[in-house]
Every structure is written in structure tokens, then in C-alpha cells.
From TrEMBL:
This is Glycoside hydrolase, family 85, cytosolic endo-beta-N-acetylglucosaminidase. It comes from Septoria linicola. PANTHER family: CYTOSOLIC ENDO-BETA-N-ACETYLGLUCOSAMINIDASE (PTHR13246:SF1), ENDO BETA N-ACETYLGLUCOSAMINIDASE (PTHR13246). GO terms for cellular component: cytosol. GO terms for molecular function: mannosyl-glycoprotein endo-beta-N-acetylglucosaminidase activity. InterPro entries: ENGase, TIM_ENGase. The keyword Hydrolase applies.
């Protein structure tokens, strides 16, 4: 597997960087010796994800579009903006705002073992996306035979360690990429298959193990670009395979047949698409190829997904952050073109080869990735919550702050329309979803509907919706919140609630009642139905019909849907203390507290974390100042702040539905806090 051209920031770094990276929540291992020495007791709480994976309901079009796996490899990996407690940055970087089109996310870097930063795992899990780490043995690596080492009981210690790491850091599996041959003394394809089967079994139900198409059953690296007799045994042992990127439709068809015949199944084969292949159109010594051969990858990535979707197989998109590495001034616009097929900005410079710019596939709505990628329902079978928060936001002072792990479920991306229509704009301070008109409407009555989210919430348990919103003072017509329902017979309808509070921020509670699909069946047992989406409806039959372009018709701060019977466990924050941790450059001060939880037995309870219980995160205030969020029961303090001798610390536990579930205040002493010389990270 080739890497993106950006140099790894870890290259040549020493142990001091490693210990500082721990404070950012990063975990990576460079050798088999380090892997053998790893144990849970050496893991810092900041390195663990706390957000449980939202179990997506199965959508209606699961078998019609391709599942998409993203393979990260952005800017060398483990970048500051991925830090557990957030950091101020100069520009936005890759966060992926199309997670409802993504099945799984692989965090890829060129360490032997790459554990996904908890920020990525938290955001992906919140959006229902599985997260995988990478176990890669690169060409020329030593100790590759360690993989096949067994104890007296026949157990593979490498498999055991990798499974333990996935469980402890709470991610969902591994991409196994072996690009070096084993010695002839240790090699056995059967032993490697048994290694994979053990790892898959120890990862457990609901996990995912992916074999990369490199090493063949003849013990030499030979990329097949499909599934065939040279790699099918490893794919079967792992449960799924990601092929190399130089496939053709003909090769994909042969792999499809092999997947069916072998019993692997079409859902477990992913054909690679190298986004960086478009950078090799001109002047590259080592030309990279991906489908289609002309304009493949880059802005043509969607054409590759389109080809795979037409064949009934899945896509693995390598280096999806390409637009952020090559178009710093237009990164979001280019990403929007890749995913939605929207027009590219004019005079778009490429930063990789200024004298020999690579070709760009022409913009076309038919070439967007999302057109051919499965669009998964947001939320789970009984729970949905979002505040529309992005991974990057402006503070009240104007600084740009990254908090990758805070990214929420975002609205369905909207296509540009030449005629007046509703559109979505995400805004900061505070985070909110603004509904606007795309352009000035003519002075006549008009009605517009906008779908915010795709859902599949079961109505087997009565549901309640709560929403915080604000309507502008100006009369711009009537705004309705609509909830779409669909039953097993395919009949659909809407329940709607008029939004009437004008001017100030309002909160609404609404017990959802499904519509009557057929008046003749009022006395007949209804078919099972589900909520299939949240919609905004604008009716301008009366009022100011000339809605100005850019004027906010509605601002939504958060939406939650859950069972009316949902119970929240009682919890209490205890024993807030300030501790001095680390040595040398990593010496720092850390707030630490305990969380006492009395669990509920109700099946309809909210999501629950094995680390932070009913709390999705904690807000931290010191002497009335907001200093950040914690996704663990610990928080590193920033050194550059001025601290008094006694600090009033307030910690609030925020539930997975956005509600405050616990709160505590304590006075802590800073005696000895500023002694010594050390570096502290945000």
C-alpha cells in the first residue's frame, strides 16, 4: 500500500515526542518488541475512546449502493488537530463531513501498529461508523516471523495483543497489511490463516478484520487487484478483503464471482480507489493507477465508486483527505465536488506540482461519491441526537478551534439548485443549523420542503422529540417541523408541528404519533412503521412572501428523538483533585475525578459508555472560565494560563442526549502546581 506524499511528522522523532503524544491521546507502536511489552496498565485514560458505537438500523437501499470504507493516511497521521482535548489551529483540516455515506473508517499510518486517536473513534461511533486500526508490516521490515509465533497451547501472541488493544481503546477491528515475506523456516499459509482466525475470534462479535491484497499464499508480495486463488484463503480467514487499487471492471467481475463461490460474500470485498492516483497524471516517476485510468482518483473518485456500484461490489477509498492536502484555499469546496459532484472553484491551483498540474475530472453531479455510496440512516433503532456541531468552529474571540471528537451528526448535504429552495448553513457561537432561502423568492405564495436527516427509528416504543430552536422576528411565513413515517407496506405520511415561538430561543417537546395511512383501517391492526426522516417545511401563503436570500428562516440548536420511557441512570461526580503527572517535558497537572453511577435496568435507556457511564463528555470550568471538554474522567490543564492559589472547579456531565446528568463544584489547591519547567499541550 502506497502512502500519500506528505512526510510523516513522526519520522526521526525521539521518545520525548512519544510521551507528549500520549497527552494528545495518540497510541502507536513501532516494533514487535513494543507490541509484546504493551499492556493495559500502560495506557493513559486520554488515549481511550468513550463513545459507544451507535448501532445503525438497516436502511432500505443497503443492497443497491456500494458500502464505502475510508482508509485515512492524512498528512502522515497523528496530527495536532486530532488531539483529545482540542487545539487552536490556523486552518481547517480533514474531518469527513459525509459519515452517513461511510460504513467503516481505517486509521492508517506507517507505524507497525496504529491505534485510532479517540477523537476519530468518538466522532465515527457517534455517526454509526466502525473504526479500525492498522497493523502494517512494510517491505524490508524485520521480525515479521513474530506474527506466526505460537505458545505451547498454539495461541498467537500477536493476535492476542492486537485484540486486547482494540477492546481496551474501544475501536472495532484491524486492517492487516503484510508487505514483507516470511522466512522459509517459519512460513506456512495455514499458520497465517490460523493467526487471522484467532484474531477475528478474539475481536469478537460486531468487529471487523480486513485483509489487504499484498502477500499471497505463495509467500511473496504480489498485488492481485481482485479476489482470486492467491488471496482468497486469507480473505476467508479474516472475513473481508481490501484489494489493491489497479483493478479494472473485468478484474472486479472475476473477484465478484470468486466471492460468491467461496462463501466470502459480496458484502465483504472492497475494491481500493487511490485518491492520489490523479496526482500521477503528469511527470511522476512512479505512476499510480486507479479506475478509471484517465482522471481516476482525486475529483474522479466518484467515477470509480460508480463503476463498483454498477458491479454490485464495495469501495475502499484510500487517502480521502486529499483535497485538504492539495487545495489549502479551497479544500472544502474540492471535497464537496468529490462527494457531491458540485462544480469546482475557478482557477483552482494544485499545490503538489505547480509547474505540471494534474488533470481534474470535470465536475458532474453524476460523479459524486455520495450518489453511489450507501446512505445509512442516522442514529439507531430507538435513539437520535445532534447539535450539528462541526469538528472546527470559531470562538467568540474569532480563533479557529479544532475538536475533532465533538463532530455531531450533520444534515444531509444539499445540492445546488437554480430555483429558489431551502438550504442549510452550519454556524458557530453557538453551533447551530440555519435554514435559509437559496435566493430571493418572487412575490407570490410558495412552499418548500427540506430533508435534514435520514432515519429509521422504530415506533414499537412511543417516541418523544425535543428540539431547541429560534425563529427570526421578521415574518417570513410559517415554519413546520415534519416527521416522515413509512410502514412495511411502503405507505408514507407526515406528522407535523408548527413552530410558533418567535424571536427568542425556544424549546419544544413533542410526543410523536404516526399518521393514519388509510382511513379504512382505523379499526385494523396497523403494519409496523418507522420514522424515516426529519423535514423542515416552509409555507409562505401569507406574511412576507419576498423572502430575502441569506435570511435565516429558522435556527436549530439541537434535536433529540428517544423512547418516551427512556431512563437516565443516576450519577454523581466525586473526589475532584488536582494531580501532578509525568516527568521531564511531559510533566503536567491534571484534574481527576470519580463518577459514581447507579445503573438503570430499562431496556430503552440512552447510550452508555463503559468509561464515562451516561456522560458523553464533561464540561470543565475554572473560576468561571470555560477551559474545555473531557471525554474521560481526567483533564490536562494548560500551563500558559494564570492560576490562583485556590481554584473553583466546576465539572458538568453531559448525557448522550445533550442534557446535564450530573454536576459538581470543588475548591482545589494549586500548591506546587507551577514548579519545574515543562511543556503542556492544549
Amino acid at each position: 500500500m502506497e502512502c500519500s506524499p506528505s512526510p510523516s511528522k513522526c519520522a526521526g522523532s525521539g521518545e520525548s515526542k512519544r510521551v507528549l503524544d500520549v497527552l494528545k491521546g495518540f497510541t502507536y507502536l513501532a516494533s514487535f518488541d513494543e507490541l509484546q511489552q504493551w499492556s493495559e496498565e500502560f495506557a493513559d485514560p486520554l488515549q481511550r475512546s468513550n463513545t459507544p458505537l451507535v448501532q445503525r438500523a438497516r436502511g432500505d437501499d443497503d443492497d443497491e449502493r456500494s458500502k464505502v470504507m475510508l482508509i485515512h493516511d492524512y498528512a502522515g497521521g497523528y496530527n495536532d488537530y486530532e488531539s483529545a482535548q482540542g487545539v487552536e489551529v490556523f486552518t481547517e483540516q480533514y474531518s469527513c463531513e459525509y459519515l452517513q455515506n461511510v460504513e467503516s473508517f481505517v486509521y492508517f499510518s506507517h507505524h507497525l501498529v496504529s491505534v485510532p486517536p479517540p477523537t476519530w473513534t468518538n466522532t465515527c461511533h457517534r455517526n454509526g461508523v466502525k473504526v479500525l486500526g492498522t497493523f502494517i508490516v512494510e517491505p524490508g521490515a524485520s521480525q515479521v516471523d513474530s506474527i506466526l509465533e505460537q505458545d505451547d497451547l498454539g495461541s498467537y501472541w500477536v493476535a492476542r495483543k492486537l485484540a486486547c488493544m482494540a477492546k481496551h481503546y474501544d475501536f472495532d477491528g484491524w486492517l492487516v497489511n503484510i508487505e514483507a515475506a516470511f522466512s522459509i523456516f517459519s512460513w506456512s499459509s495455514g499458520r497465517l490463516e490460523r493467526f487471522l482466525r484467532q484474531l477475528r475470534a478474539e475481536l469478537g462479535q460486531g468487529s471487523q478484520l480486513v485483509w489487504y491484497d499484498a502477500l499471497t499464499s505463495f509467500n511473496f508480495v504480489w498485488y492481485q487487484n481482485t479476489l482470486n486463488y492467491l488471496n482468497v484463503s486469507f480473505a476467508l480467514a479474516a472475513g473481508s478483503i481490501l484489494t489493491n487499487y489497479a483493478w479494472t471492471p473485468e478484474l472486479a467481475l472475476t473477484g465478484k464471482s470468486r466471492a460468491i463461490q467461496s462463501g466470502l460474500g459480496l458484502g465483504n470485498i472492497y475494491y481500493g480507489i487511490d485518491v492520489y492516483a490523479q496526482n500521477s497524471q503528469h511527470g511522476s516517476k512512479h505512476k499510480r493507477t486507479t479506475w478509471p485510468k484517465v482522471n481516476g482518483g482525486g475529483t474522479g473518485t466518484g467515477m470509480g465508486v460508480q463503476a463498483l456500484q454498477s458491479l454490485g461490489v464495495n469501495a475502499g477509498i484510500f487517502a480521502p483527505g486529499w483535497s485538504y492536502e492539495h487545495f489549502s484555499d479551497h479544500n472544502r469546496a474540492v471535497e464537496k465536488s468529490v462527494w457531491q459532484g458540485e462544480p469546482l472553484p475557478h482557477r483552482l491551483p494544485c499545490e503538489c506540482l505547480p509547474n505540471k498540474p494534474h488533470d481534474l475530472a470535470p465536475s458532474d453531479l453524476d460523479h459524486g461519491v455520495s450518489r453511489y455510496a450507501n446512505h445509512f440512516p442516522a442514529g439507531s433503532e430507538y435513539f437520535f441526537h445532534t447539535t450539528f456541531e462541526r469538528a472546527f468552529s470559531r470562538t467568540t474571540g474569532g480563533a479557529l478551534r479544532a475538536h475533532l471528537g465533538a463532530q455531531q451528526i450533520l444534515p444531509i448535504p444539499q445540492q445546488s439548485h437554480p430555483s429558489p429552495s431551502l438550504r442549510v448553513e452550519l454556524r458557530d457561537c453557538p453551533s447551530r443549523c440555519s435554514i435559509l432561502m437559496s435566493q430571493v423568492c418572487e412575490d407570490h405564495p410558495h412552499k418548500h420542503q427540506l430533508q435534514l436527516t435520514k432515519l429509521k427509528l422504530s415506533t414499537a416504543k412511543p417516541l418523544r422529540l425535543s428540539m431547541t430552536y429560534r425563529l427570526p422576528v421578521i415574518d417570513l411565513g410559517v415554519m413546520w417541523l415534519q416527521i416522515g413515517f413509512v410502514d412495511q407496506q411502503g405507505r408514507s405520511g407526515f406528522a407535523q408541528h408548527r413552530l410558533s415561538e418567535v424571536g427568542s430561543v425556544a424549546e419544544m417537546e413533542w410526543n410523536l404519533v404516526e399518521p393514519v395511512f388509510d382511513q379504512h383501517e382505523l379499526n385494523v391492526k396497523r403494519a409496523i412503521s418507522w420514522v424515516d426522516g426529519i423535514y423542515i417545511f416552509h409555507d409562505c401563503e401569507s406574511g412576507n412572501r419576498n423572502s430575502p436570500s441569506g435570511a435565516a428562516l429558522l435556527e436549530i440548536y439541537e434535536i433529540t428523538i428517544l423512547p418516551q420511557s427512556a431512563a437516565r441512570p443516576n450519577c454523581e461526580i466525586l473526589d475532584i483533585v488536582l494531580e501532578k503527572r509525568g516527568t521531564g517535558r511531559a510533566e503536567h497537572n491534571r484534574l481527576v475525578w470519580e463518577l459514581d453511577v447507579i445503573p438503570e435496568e430499562d431496556e430503552a435507556r440512552l447510550p452508555y459508555s463503559p468509561i464515562t457511564g451516561p456522560c458523553a463528555y464533561f464540561t470543565i470550568q475554572i473560576d468561571g472560565r470555560d477551559v474545555g471538554r473531557a471525554y474521560a474522567t481526567e483533564f490536562v490543564l494548560r500551563m500558559e494560563m494564570e492560576w490562583a492559589e485556590m481554584l473553583e472547579v466546576e465539572i458538568g456531565g453531559i448525557g448522550f442526549d445533550g442534557k446535564i446528568v450530573c454536576h459538581a463544584t470543588a475548591l482545589v489547591s494549586t500548591s506546587g502546581m507551577n514548579e519545574g519547567s515543562w511543556v503542556l499541550l492544549e
